[in-house]
Amino acid sequence: MNNPLLTTLEIIQALGIQSASAAELMTKFSISVAGLKRHLGEARLLGAKIESVRFGKGWVYVLANKDDVKVRVHQWIQLERERDLTA
Fold first, then answer.
1. Is the dihedral of CA 63, 71, 23, 20 positive or negative?
2. Residues 39, 31: contact at Cβ < 8 Å?
3. Tens digits of per-residue pLDDT, 23-81?
4. Which of 55, 63, 56 minimizes the C-alpha distance to 11?
5. Can you give the pTM of this predicted structure?
6. Tally: H helices and E strands in the chain
7. Hey, what domains does the chain have and what are their CATH numbers?
């Protein structure tokens, strides 16, 4: 089942571990450019401070407030993965 909120949270979590280019995120999460932009926008609305910074010859996304959101994102992901009314 496709869960857009879970994908957004997992992108936040991934950026909390390591910066990534748009291409890397699109490949890892099997999403399009439009999908990535949508998820990054949602992540920012949830409070993730995602910045695009120059790295070498390209650009990468960085989670600037990773220490502030790490625990809550992990907990939220667990809740989203366990969400099932039939269990």
1. positive
2. yes
3. 999 999 999 999 999 999 999 999 999 999 999 999 999 999 999 999 999 999 999 99
4. 63
5. 0.92
6. 4, 2
7. 4-82 (1.10.10.10)
